[in-house]
Amino acid sequence: MTFYGFTNRDEWPPDNTAYTRYGEKAKLFERRLFIPYLRDKKERLKLRKGELPIGIAIIMEVWNDIHQRLRHQNRSKRRRYHRILQRIELLKKLDKRQHLINRLQEVLGTDAIPASKMLKAEAISEKWFDSHCYGKLPRLDYLIDLLENYCPYFNEICQSGDHNIVVSYTANTTPLNDDEKIRLRSFLSNHFSPDSNWQLFFASDNTIPNEMALQFIGNHGSFI
Predict the structure, then answer these.
(1) Does the pLDDT at position 224 exceed 70?
(2) Is the pTM of this model over 0.85?
(3) What is the mean pLDDT of residues 69-73?
(4) With CB atoms 3.0 to 4.6 Å apart as the test, which of 34, 40, 151, 191 could cross-link to 158 if both were Cys?
């Protein structure tokens, strides 16, 4: 790893954070998934009410008991278990999609992006790239150098989506000037195919004074 492209925007939430109503519903289904396999009425009540810390925090002895019963399910119970797992997976996917849509609408406005298509997409990819010039290099030159020379999958990012969104972030005190905007659009045009569907937006992020960040979002197909 090098300092090129380092970002803390992809932090992993250890507590299985729910961002929207989809995530809350996924947590509800996760609790329902294990309730039939709990014999302890107190633990079952805690699980049903969502009173256990950090998701489903059950002592190891209880987990072993649950896994033992899972191995001896009949066919109908196995099908029920599988259906709920599929539902949880879908809800978690929708939770992340809606969270991304909410973040974009917050900085770009409610009508700027195809929210409905993004929510129903077969897949959504999101990549961030940040400049770390500290006043030594022009921030746009830094990011162009990063993407062209240190990111072997950059062309794949540009060519893989049916609809691509690029958001450029700068602080309100140091917005991109007209020359930077022209250079950035020209650079991206050289990497997105002429017939591809892509959009470039400019937004504010006051946590990165004097620096610049690029967010690439790819919308792939439709699954709903």
Answers:
(1) no
(2) no
(3) 78
(4) 191
C-beta contacts of 141-146 below 8 A and 24+ residues apart = 142/212, 143/212, 143/214, 144/187, 146/4, 146/5
Q: Which helix (H) or strand (E) holds 169?
A: strand 163-170
Q: How many CB atoms lie within 10 A of CB 184?
A: 20
- Nearest-Å Rg of the Cα atoms of the chain is 22
CB 172 within 8 A of CB 207: no
Q: State whether the Cα torsion 174-180-184-189 is positive or negative.
A: positive
CA distance 224 to 220: 12
Q: Which of 160, 141, 192 is nearest to 200 (CA)?
A: 192
Contact criterion met (CB below 8 Å) for 81 and 70? yes
Q: Are 178 and 105 in contact (CB under 8 A)?
A: no
pLDDT digits over 12-31, tens only? 555 567 899 999 999 888 87
